[in-house]
Amino acid sequence: MKITQAEFVISAVKPHQYPEDALPEIALAGRSNVGKSSLINKMLERKALARTSSQPGKTQQLNYYRINDQLYFVDFPGYGYAKVSKTQREQWGGMIESFLRDREPLKMVLHIIDVRHPPSKDDCLMYKWLKHFQIPVCIVVTKADKIPRSKWDKHMKIVKVTLEADPADPMVLVSSETGLGRDQLWSVIMKAIED
Ligand code: GTP
Ligand code: MG
Fold this sequence. Notes:
There is one protein chain. This protein has helices at 36-44, 86-102, 121-132, 152-163, 182-194; strands at 6-12, 25-30, 62-67, 71-75, 106-114, 137-142, 171-173. By secondary structure, the chain is α/β, with parallel strands linked by helices. It has a single domain (6-194), classed as Rossmann fold. A 7-stranded mixed sheet has the order 1-3-4-2-5-6-7, with helices on both faces. Helix 4 (152-163) links the parallel strand 6 and strand 7. It is globular and about 45 Å long. The chain starts with 5 loop residues before the first strand and ends with a helix.
């Protein structure tokens, strides 16, 4: 995928701020600090378009990125960060739930999981939610560079089994450090927006 244009559009906190041009949307969901923003930067070949941080819970809104006048990436706020207040957690839940239920241009969610750890309870709940709303999902297992290649298969299997993943869902191993899996993920995305 050749990126000719990539721009940050808006940090949306209310539905009326979502873009209205009906371009297909690909959302990224995952725990705080799992590497959602880093993956966006890698996919777009931009160093710091999406803000990344070693400090979890930084992304609090739906951040829209417009790509090649063809699609949007929507960076969800990370979930599962313990220090977030109950009110904030409920706000997050409400916002994401209505987005998943009502957002017509949404074509796929990239569900991002850290290759180093088995999916958490929150990860399993998120996955169940996505299936419940019948959203096409691609399971993206990231930070591959953090474990030896010899362990990749074993860890991928743990992710699949723990999530009770639908065998029909694509699963891609990526690294935002090395670019592993980038082309494969782009082809999954292009297929999702063409369907
Ligand atoms: P929130 O916005 O807080 O939910 O976090 P996020 O999911 O957007 O994570 P972010 O992209 O900010 O990355 C968190 C940390 O993980 C940063 O220090 C990144 O540099 C690091 N990181 C992300 N992806 C990778 C990867 O593939 N490999 C390695 N080695 N580090 C990564
Ligand atoms: Mg982020």
